[in-house]
Protein 1
Amino acid sequence: MESNQTSKKAIVVGAGLVGSLWAVFLARRGYQVEVYERRSDMRAAGYTGGRSINLAMSERGWKAIEKAGIREKIEKVAIPMPGRMIHSVEGELSFQPYGKAGEAIYSVSRGGLNLELLSIAGSFPNVQFFFDHRCLDADLERPVLTFEDTGTGAVKTVEAPLVFAADGAFSAVRYAIQKTDRFNYNQFYLEHGYKELSIPPDANGRHRIDPSALHIWPRGNFMLIALPNADGSFTCTLFLPFEGEVSFEKLTGNDAVNAFFKKYFADALPHMPTLLDDFWGNPTSSLVTVKCAPWQWQNRILLIGDAAHAIVPFYGQGMNAGFEDCTILDAMHDELDGDWSRIIPQFARERQPDGDAIAELAQRNFIEMRDLVGDPQFLLRKKIAARLHERHPDFLPVYSMVTFSNTPYHVALEEDDAQNRLFERVLRLEDAEHNWDGVEEVFGQWLNGKLNS
Amino acid sequence: MESNQTSKKAIVVGAGLVGSLWAVFLARRGYQVEVYERRSDMRAAGYTGGRSINLAMSERGWKAIEKAGIREKIEKVAIPMPGRMIHSVEGELSFQPYGKAGEAIYSVSRGGLNLELLSIAGSFPNVQFFFDHRCLDADLERPVLTFEDTGTGAVKTVEAPLVFAADGAFSAVRYAIQKTDRFNYNQFYLEHGYKELSIPPDANGRHRIDPSALHIWPRGNFMLIALPNADGSFTCTLFLPFEGEVSFEKLTGNDAVNAFFKKYFADALPHMPTLLDDFWGNPTSSLVTVKCAPWQWQNRILLIGDAAHAIVPFYGQGMNAGFEDCTILDAMHDELDGDWSRIIPQFARERQPDGDAIAELAQRNFIEMRDLVGDPQFLLRKKIAARLHERHPDFLPVYSMVTFSNTPYHVALEEDDAQNRLFERVLRLEDAEHNWDGVEEVFGQWLNGKLNS
C-alpha cells in the first residue's frame, strides 16, 4: 500500500509546529513533501518571530510527538507543572493540582520544539523545504498556490493537487477558500491583549520562584501568568483589556507600569528586574478565535492546526489540538487506505466539532483562570467538585478530560455544559459546602438525567 | 457649512441600491462624488446580473427614498401588499394582514429602482461614475483603492481619503479590512438555497393570482413565495435545502421537478408554464449572513449596506436596512457638522447593534414563514397576539415595529425576545385559546417585568 504512494506529492503550507510535525508523518509514509514557510530557516537563523509564548504540552501533544519519534528528546527539556500556583494580591500562595498524583502539564519552549520538528522532518530525503516563501494566494480551481520569495521578491506558482494548509490563524489558503460559496467563517477577537514579560534566573542561574507549577496572578478581569523555562527563567504573560479602566491604554509610561505592578503583582515585581525593558520592547498582541467550515476544498486542500481552528491560549490546547489533528489524520490514512479523496472530507466533517468545542472551552477557561481567587462561588464549586470526584471516581473534572485524556473535545464540551447545570443546582442549596446529603441528592438526580436543560 | 464641503471628495464603491442612493445624499451636500461599479452602466446596458429578486419596500425604505426625492416616482410602480396569502398543500387560501388597515409593504423591482437611483445621481454634475470597475484591493494605510477596468484589463489606483464601501455582501473593501488586527468578522450560510421562478401574466396581460398580497406556500423546511410585478407577472422564489431528503440535489431532472411541484405546490403549478425553463435556466444561489465590527477603518473608510450587514431576505429588510443607513448617516452629518472624523466612528458604533439585530430577526423570520401553516402552536400564538394587540394597543407585534416604524432594530429584537418569553408562558396555560383570564394574568406579570429571563 505504501509503495504506490511513494511518487505522490503533498504540499504543506507552513513549517510551524503543526506543519513540520505533519511533514514528518507524511514523510514516513513515503510522500514527496514540499514544505513552504514564510519565515527563514530557524535551523540556520535561530528562532525568530512568531509567538515565543511557552507551550503547555499535555496528553494529546505527547501522543503525536511520540508517533513522530521525538518524545524522549522533548521530555528532557520539558518542565512538569503538576498544578497551578495561585498568587493572591496579598502575596499568599495556594497550590491547586491539575489532576491526580503523577499527572502534569509540561512547559515547553515553542522555538525549541519547532526546531526539533524541523530537524527530524529535514532528515527525510523526501522532504524539501522552501523557506522565505510567503503564500500570496491560492487559485483553487487549477489548483495552484502562489508564493513570493521574500528574499528576491520573485513570485512563483506551484501546482498543488494535494495541499495541507498549516499556515496558522491568518492562513492565506483559508482566505482564498473563504471567498468560495457556502464557506462559513468566523474570526473573533477578545477585548484583551497580551504582552510577554520575563522573570530571569537568579544570580546562581536558578529559578527565582517554584519551577514546578504554572503561576497565576488572577485579578478578576485580567491576570499575569508565568511558565518555567529550562534555563532558570520564567516566561510571563500579562493578559489585560486593551481599553478601559484598567487596561493597556492606561499604562502610558514607566510610572504607570510600576504602579500597576506594585498594586496588583507586588510579590512578582521584585523578580522582574527587566520589567520596563520587556514592557516597552515587546508588542501588545491580540487574541483571536477562528472557526470555519468546511475545513477542506474539493477533497484536495485541507486546513489543519490554527488555520482551521485558532483558539485563545487559556486551556493550553492550541498546539495540542493541532498535533491531535495529525494523529487523527494519520489514523484515517490507515483506515481509508491512503485515499485522500475520502480522508479529507471525512476528517473535515468529523474533526470540526472538536475544533469548535476546544475554541469554546478555551474562552470559558479564561474566565475561570481570572476568577480563581476572586469569586467565592467559583472556589466553592471547585471544592465540591473535588469531593464529588473523590467519592465518585467516574465523575471526572472536565479539565482532566481535556488535558489528561484523548476524549474528543466535543464530548468534553458537552460534559462541561452538563456539569454547569449540575453546579447551578448544587450552589442553590443552602450552605452547600456542609450540606453533603443535599449535594449527593442533586448529584443523583443529575446522573439520572433529570437536570437536563 | 455646506459651502466649505464643496471641494471635498468622497468615493463610493458600488452603484447598487445603497451606493447610488448614498451618492445622491452626498451630491446634494455638494461633495465631489466618484462612484465605482463592477457592472456596466445599466442606464445604457439594461439591468443585468445581480439578484433580480423583488424587494419589499417598507417604512425605512420609503423614508430614505423620500429624502432622495423620488418617492412619487417609485410609488407609481410599487404594488402594495397589505398581507400574506397563505397557500396550504390542499390549495386553501388564507389571508393574514401585515398590519393595520392602510398598512402595506410594497413590491418593487430591484432593477427598476436601481435605474431610478442611478438616473437621479447622474443628474448631479458633481457625481462621476466609473462603471466596469472592479475593486481588487484596498491599501488601507496610504490609503488607495485598486480597480481593474474589466473592459480593458487595465489596473489603476485611486487616492481614497474618504470612502463609503457599498460593495455588497462580498465587499472587496471589507476583505481588506478583515485582515487588520481586531476586526471581528462572521459569514454564515444557510443550508437552504434559492432559485427564482416566475408566474407570467395571463393571456390578457393580467395577474393570474391576487396581486395585492405576498403569496407564501409554507412547507415546513422549505417554501415558495411570489411577489407581484407591475407587468402582470409574479417573481417567485423557491427556498429549499441544498442537500437532504427534500432538496435541490434531489431535483435532478424534469420529472423530479414536476413531481415535486405537483406534490407540494399543486395550485401554483398550472400558473407556471415556464417552470422547467426557469428551473434549469436560473442558478441555485446561496443565502449568506455577514456580521462584522467595527464597520469602519480609522475614521476614513465606512462600510454601509450589505458590505456591513448582509442578511437573509426573510424579513424583507435588506434594502430597507441599507437605505436606513443613509438616512441615519445623513442626520449625523447635520448633527456633527459634516465632520467625518466624528461621524464615521459614531455611526459605526451606534448603528452596528441594529445591523446585528436585523440579521438575527431575518433568520428567525425564515422559521416563522416556513411554519405558517404547519405548526398549530405557532398559529395559536399568532391568534392570541392579535387579540392582545386589540385589547392593549400598546402591545405592538414585532413585525409592525420592524416594518411600519423606524424603531431601531435592536429595540425590535429585544421586544422579540421579550414576547418570546411571554408566549412561552402563555402557551403553557391549559387551553390558552379560551382561557382569556389566564392570558391576561400572564400578560400583566409580563408587563410588570416579572417574566424576565
Note: Chain A has a mean pLDDT of 93.
Protein 2
Amino acid sequence: MTADEISSDDSCVTVPLGARRYDILIGANLIERAGAEIAARLPDVRAAVVSDENVAALYLEPLQGSLAAAGIESTAIVLPAGEKTKHFDHVIDAAERVLDARLERGDLVLALGGGVIGDLAGFVAGIVRRGMRLVQVPTSLLAQVDSSVGGKTGINTAHGKNLVGVFHQPALVLADTGVLDTLSAREFRAGYAEMVKYGLIDRPDFFAWLEDRWREVFAGGPARVKAIAQSCQAKADVVAADEHEHGHRALLNLGHTFGHALEAATGYDGARLVHGEGVAIGMVLAHQFSARLNLASPDDADRVAAHLRAVGLPTAMGDIEGPLPPPDILLDHIGQDKKVKKGKLTFVLTRGVGRSFLADDVPPSAVLSFLKEKHPQ
Amino acid sequence: MTADEISSDDSCVTVPLGARRYDILIGANLIERAGAEIAARLPDVRAAVVSDENVAALYLEPLQGSLAAAGIESTAIVLPAGEKTKHFDHVIDAAERVLDARLERGDLVLALGGGVIGDLAGFVAGIVRRGMRLVQVPTSLLAQVDSSVGGKTGINTAHGKNLVGVFHQPALVLADTGVLDTLSAREFRAGYAEMVKYGLIDRPDFFAWLEDRWREVFAGGPARVKAIAQSCQAKADVVAADEHEHGHRALLNLGHTFGHALEAATGYDGARLVHGEGVAIGMVLAHQFSARLNLASPDDADRVAAHLRAVGLPTAMGDIEGPLPPPDILLDHIGQDKKVKKGKLTFVLTRGVGRSFLADDVPPSAVLSFLKEKHPQ
C-alpha cells in the first residue's frame, strides 16, 4: 500500500496476528463513535476507562456517553497526569479498581490518553485475571502512530523506563484525529518524529511524501489521516513479522539508542527534551554515525536533518538547551540501555534513507569517538 | 501413553507448544543435576533463584552449587514462606532484585519451591523486561503435578486469590522426586488429590491404576515417578489443547469450584483445610451433584470417595473440623469464584469416572438444595 492508496476520510489498518488480529481505526470524531465501534466488534461487554486528569477533563464525558449510548456500562479510573504515573503503585490501584467493578476476563480496559496511560492501562489489562480485553484510544500523535499499536505495555522502576511490563495486544485501537488539534505544536512535532522514523526504516517513498506534504499533515485533514494510517501500517507490518522483538522489531528503535541516552542525560526533563525530540536528534546521529562508518553517504544524513529542521525539530546535541554530560557519560547511558547484549552495543544503522538494519557488534570505542566529534561543548 | 509405558527411573514429558515447547523432567536428584540439565538446553545464561526461607534452607545451596558447577552464575532471592508472599509487595521487591542483578531477557528466573513460589516467581519472570526465561523447580507434590506446568502465574489481591497474573510458560521444569520425602504425609496427600483429578477428568485407566498402586506411589520409587509423569502428561495434553483457558482447560477445575468455596468458608486456614483437601471434598461433591442431576451413577461418587478416604483424604464437608457457614453463604462463595459468567454458574460435572465435562448453565437453586442436603450442621 502506498500513502496515496489510503482512503481520505476514515482509515482502517489491520494488525494481522491470526486469532488476535485487530483493527486500528483512524479518523475524526472516533471518541463520539467509540461505543458503536466497540459494540459492533465486542458484544456484551462492560468497561473500565483508564485516563489521566488532563485528558479526562476533555474527553471522559463524551467517551462514557458514547459507551452508554451503545449499552456499554463503564466505570472511570482517573490517574494523575505525567510520566511518574507509570509506577507499580498506580498499577496496583488501577487493578484493584478494575476488580472493584467486578469486570471479567472478556470485559474491557479502555486506555484514554497518551503514551503513559496506554502503557499503564495496557499493563493492567495484561495482568488482571491473567489478561482482559484492551481497547486503546490514544490522544497524542505519538501514541496514535507508535505506542498504542503493537502490544508493548509497561511501567518504570528505579532501574529505568519500561523495565516491567508485558506484551498484550489490544482488541481495537481508535485513533481520533480530531483530538490532535488540542496538542501543542511541540507535542505534535514530537509525534511527527516517529512518523518520519517509519520512512527512514524501510519506506523511502513515505519519507519523500512527508518531505513534500508535511505542511498538510501539520494542518490536519486528509493528509494527516493518511500519514497516521501509513505509520500504523508500517508498525503493523513490523509487529506481525516479530511480535515479541526477537529480531526485526528492533528496527523500530532507529534513533532511540542515542535518543534514550540524551533523555537520560537531561534527567528526563521534558522542558529540555521530550522523547520525540530525542528520537529526532537520535535519527540524525544514527545517519551521521552510519556515514562515519562508511555505510551510508553523508548526503543522506544531511537530507534527514534538513527535513526535521524544516518542521521545527532539533537535529543536533547542540540544539538542547543547557549543558550535556561529557561523551564518556553519554556512552555509559547507551551501555545501560536494555538493547545491549553481552557487552557489545546494538544499534540500528543505515545504508541510506529507508535502508536501516540491525547491527549488534558496534564497538563502544567507535561510538565514543563519534560522540566526541558531535558533542557541542 | 499408558502409565505402564513410562520408563521407570527418570521420565520426560514434553509440553507441545510449537516454538515454546518445553520438557518436564521427573526423577531423583534433579536439583543436583539442575545446572547440567539447564546448561544443555539454555546455553550462556545467568539466573536469579527465587525461593522461600524453608525451602532455601534445604535446597538453595545444592542448587546454586549445581548451577555454579555448570558455569551458571546465580543470585538468590529468598522470600518469607506462606501464601501471604503472593502479594504485589513481594513482586515489586523480587522484580527490583532481578534488575539489580542486571539480568537480561534471555536470562533465567528459577523458581525453587512449592506453588506459592512458583506462582510468584513465574509472574516476576513474566513481567520483568516483558518476559524473561523461567525454570520451575517444584518442591511440593502439588507443584510438581499441577502448578509448575502450564504457565499460569499469579498473586492474590484484596479481592481474592490469583486475580492478578499472566500466562507465562516455563522453558524447563525439573521435578526432583527426592525432595518429596521431606513433605509431611498431609502435604503429600494434598498433592495426591490433584493426581486423582487427572484420572477422574478423562483417564479412567489411570484412576484404576492409582486405586491399585497408591501405596507404592506414597512409598516412593518408580511408581511415584510414573504417577507424577502420567499427571504431567495429562496436564500437558490439556494445556496444549487450550493454553489460555478459553474452554477445555477449565476441566482442570474439577472439584475446584466446591473446593475453593470451602477454602474461602474456612478463611483459608491451612490448619483446617489445605487446597488439595478442598479439591478432594470438591471432587466427591462434584460426582455426588452429577448423580443428583441424574448425569452419573451414585456408585461412581461412592467409588471416588472410597479411594480418597483410603489414602487419608477428607471426602465430605463433615470431615472439616469446626463449624461451616450455612449453605446460602457457601453458594455466595461459589458465586464469587471467577469461573462464574453472566450470573450462570459454571461447573465441571461428570457422567462417571473419567467422563467429566464443562457445564456453564447450572442453576444456583439446584446447587443450593444440594448443599443443604450435604451440609453437616
Note: Confidence is low (pLDDT under 50) at residues 1-8 of chain B.
Protein 3
Amino acid sequence: MKFLRLLLVFIPISLIGEFVHFSPTLMFILSALAIIPLAGLMGEATEEISFYSGPRIGGFLNATFGNATELIISFFALKAGLFEVVKASISGSVIGNILLVLGASMLAGGMKYKTQAFNKQALEVNSSMLLFAVIGLIIPAVFTHTVSPELLNKQYEGLSIIVAVIMFSIYLMSLFFSFYTHKDLYSVDHREESKPKWSLKTAVLVLVAATVFIGLESEFLVSAVEPMTKEAGLSEFFVGIILIPIIGNAAEHSTAVLMALKNEMDVAIEIAIGSSLQIILFVTPVLIFLSLLFKPMSIIFNEFELVALLLSVFIANRVSNDGESNWLEGFQLLAVYLIIAVSFFVL
Amino acid sequence: MKFLRLLLVFIPISLIGEFVHFSPTLMFILSALAIIPLAGLMGEATEEISFYSGPRIGGFLNATFGNATELIISFFALKAGLFEVVKASISGSVIGNILLVLGASMLAGGMKYKTQAFNKQALEVNSSMLLFAVIGLIIPAVFTHTVSPELLNKQYEGLSIIVAVIMFSIYLMSLFFSFYTHKDLYSVDHREESKPKWSLKTAVLVLVAATVFIGLESEFLVSAVEPMTKEAGLSEFFVGIILIPIIGNAAEHSTAVLMALKNEMDVAIEIAIGSSLQIILFVTPVLIFLSLLFKPMSIIFNEFELVALLLSVFIANRVSNDGESNWLEGFQLLAVYLIIAVSFFVL
Amino acid sequence: MKFLRLLLVFIPISLIGEFVHFSPTLMFILSALAIIPLAGLMGEATEEISFYSGPRIGGFLNATFGNATELIISFFALKAGLFEVVKASISGSVIGNILLVLGASMLAGGMKYKTQAFNKQALEVNSSMLLFAVIGLIIPAVFTHTVSPELLNKQYEGLSIIVAVIMFSIYLMSLFFSFYTHKDLYSVDHREESKPKWSLKTAVLVLVAATVFIGLESEFLVSAVEPMTKEAGLSEFFVGIILIPIIGNAAEHSTAVLMALKNEMDVAIEIAIGSSLQIILFVTPVLIFLSLLFKPMSIIFNEFELVALLLSVFIANRVSNDGESNWLEGFQLLAVYLIIAVSFFVL
C-alpha cells in the first residue's frame, strides 16, 4: 500500500496540467492517478481516528467514509449534469466490487492457498441484504419500463425520492443493527489489534487534506470526461461503468487482495460485499437527495445496469454461500468482469 | 384473533349499504371489513372439522380451504370479466405472503427475540417447489412475449389450459407426497395438540355460513371495484395487486405474526410459503378452469407481475436457506413491499 | 444399454432411404434412431480407451468426447447455415440435461428409494461454474438487446469471438483445475473399478467407426430439417430446442437414469450438470470458431433461450444445494420441461 503514495506526485502535475491546458485524455489520466493514493490516505486516516474514537464511532466513520471518494466524484458529475455517468458509476462500483475485487482476491489468494475457507454465517446477513437492496432498486425500474414512459415522466421525481428515503432508512436501520442490537455478530476487526501510528491531530489533518484534494482532482476528472470521450472515442457509459469505479475503489481493491494473500478471505469478501451494500443503501440515496440542489436525478437505472447488478448479486450470494474459494472461482469472476468490460469497449 | 370477530358487524352494515346505494368506495371498504373476520371463521371451522376427520382428511381440508377466500373473490371478479384484477390479485397474494406476512412476522418476532432459528430442512421442499412453480408460470409468458402477439392470440387458450393442467397435476402429486409417500417429513401441526372447541355440527354450520357470506360480500366488493377506481382515482391493477390480497389474507397474516411472537417461526414461514404455493398450484389452475364457464382467461401474466413473482421467490428461497431470522431481515422485506406498493400508488 | 444396439439396424435402413429418396420426416426419424446407439458406442469406446490411457488422459477424453455427438450434428447444421437450429440445440441441450435428465433420474430413483442423498460439496464447484458461465453468456446478449441493433451488427462478430475465447479459456482452466491443482476433489469414477472389456485396438476402431457414421447420419438429419419442418408443420426452433438435444443426449440420459436406479445420484447429477457445463464452455466456443470457416455465427442467443437457460441454472443450483432428492422433485423438473416443450409445440 505504501508504494501507492508515490502517485501523490500526480497532484502537482495535474495542477500544472490544468493551468497549461493539457489534453482532456491526459488530464483524465493524471487526475485519476492522483485520486488513487488520496483515497488510500483517506481510508488510513479514518482508521487512525477510529483508534481514538472507540470502536462504535470508528465503525460508523469507516462505514460512512468507506465510499467517500465515489461520493465526491459522483457529486461533481451530478453538478455537471452527467446523470448517465453517475448511475453507470454506481452500477459499475457494485459490479466491480463483486467481480473484480472478489475475483482478484480469490485468484491471488487461491494461487497461494489451495482452498480458502471463510465463515459464511457472518456473510449471510450482508449478502441477503444486498439481494434485497438490489431487488428494491429493480422493482420501480421494471415498473417504469413496463408502463408507457410518457405517462410517467412527471411522477419519476416523487417516486425516486420515496425509494431513496426507503433505501436510506434501511441503511440507518442496518447501522442500528450492527452497532446496537446485534453488534456481537460482527467480530472485532483484525486490523484494530495494532496500535495507532499517527496522533489524532495528524489523522484529522490528513483526512481534511485528502478530502479537499479529492474534491479538486474529481473536478478535473469530471470536466475531462465529456471532451475525452469525443477525443478517445469512448462512450460516457464505458467511462462511468468501468473506469471511474476502478479509480474510486483502487485503494480498497488492493486492501482486499492483500487480505486474501494473508488468508483472511473473510475480510476480503466483507470489503467487497459491504462496500457494494453501502453504495446502494447510502451513496445512491444521498446522490438522489443532493441532485435536488441542481436538477433532480431519477433512481431508475437502465436495463443493462439492472441485469448486471442482479446477476452480480446472484454471484455474490452463491460465492458467500459456498464457504470456501479457490483460484478457479476467482478466474471465473474476472472472466465475467472481462466480458462486461469488452462488451462496452467494443461499442 | 378474537377481536377480529367484532368486524362481523360490517356484514349487516354492508347489506344496508347495498340497499340504500352507498358510494362504491364505501361499499368496497365495508365489504372488505366484513370479509376479514369471515375468512378467519372459515379457517377456524376448517381446523375444528379436522379434529373429527383425522389428520389426513384434515390436512387436505386445510390445504384446500386455506385460500378459499381468495378463490371466492377471484371467482366473482372472473364472472365480472375483470381478468386483470384476478391476475393481479394472484401475483399480489404471493408477493404479499412472502414480503408482507414474512416481513411482519420477522420484524415482530425479531423485536421480542434476538434471532429466531427455524428448521430449514422442512422448508426446503416447499421453497424449491415454489421456485419451480413460478418458473413454470414464467416460461409460457416469456415465450408469448417474445413471439409476435398476433400469431399467438388463438393459441393462448389451449396453451393456458395445458399449463393449468400441468400445474394442477403437480398440486395433486404434492398432496400425494405429503399425505402418503413422505408424510413423516411434515411434523405434526402444533395447533392440533389442543382439543376441539366446537362440535362437528357447529363447525360444519360455521363453514357453510362463512362461505355463503364471503360469497355475498365478494360480490359487493367486486362490483364496487370498477366504479371505485374511477371515483378514488386508483388503478384496477393497484386494487388487484395490493388491496384484494390484504383483504383475502388478513386472517392468515395475523396467525403468522402471532406464531412469530410465540417464537414458532417455522409455522410463520410455513404459512407464508405454503400459502404462496397453493395459490400458484391450486388457485390459479382452478381459476383458469372456472373461466371456461364464462370467457377463457389466459395464464399469461404481465412483465411486472412475473418479475415481482420471481424476485419474491428468490427472497423466499434466500430467507428459508438462512435458517434464522432477525428484525432487520423483517424490516427489509417490508421495505421491498413498500417500494412495490408505492410504485403502484404513485401511478 | 445393450438393447440400444439393436437400433444400429437403422444405419443401413437410412442409407437405403437416402438412395430411394424417402420423405424428409422419415429420413429425420431414421437418422435420429441411428445416431442414438452410435452416440452410446462412442461413449463406451472412450471409456474403454481410458482404461489403457490412465485416468488423466482418460478424464480428458471423456470430457472432450462427452458431447461429441452434439458437436458433430451442430457442425453440419452450421455448414448448412441453420444458425437458429444450432443455437436452439445448444440451449436445448442445457435445458434438457437439467430438466429432462435430472428430472427423469430423480423420478425413477425416487420411486425406488424414498430419498436419495448426494454429496453436495463436490457438486458445488460445478453448479457455481454453470451459473457463472451462463451469466457470461447473458451479459453480451442483454447488452446487444439494449443497444439499438443497427449500430451493432458489424461489431457482433468481434464481440462473439472474444466472448468465445474467454469461455474457452475458462474451459481450459477448469481442465487444469480438475486434472492438476484440485484433482483430489473429484472422486474416482465408480465405473472405472471394473476391467476393460475391449482391447485398445477394438476400442479405437469402434471410436473411429462411430464418429464416421455419426457424421454421415448427422448430414442426413440436418438436410432433412428444413423440408421436414415444412412437411410436418413444426418450427425449426422446436426441432433445435427439443428434438436434436434428445437425439444427441439419449445415451447419456439412459446412463443417468440407470445410475439413479442404482442409488448413485451423485453420478446422475454430475452427468447432467457436467454435460451442461461442457456445452457452454467447450461446444459453444468451438462452434463459434468453426463457423468462421463458413459464415460467422454470433454468440447472441434470443431472449427466450436466455431466460430458459438462466432459470434452468437456478433450478440446477437449487437442486444441488439441497443435498437430497425425491420423486416429487423429479416430477416437477419434468413438468417444467413439459411446459417448455408444449409452449413450442403449440406454436
Note: Chain A touches chain C at residues 114-115, 302-304, 307-308, 311, 314-315, 318-319, 321-322, 326-329, 331-333, 335-336, 338-340, 342-344, 346-347 (CB under 8 Å).
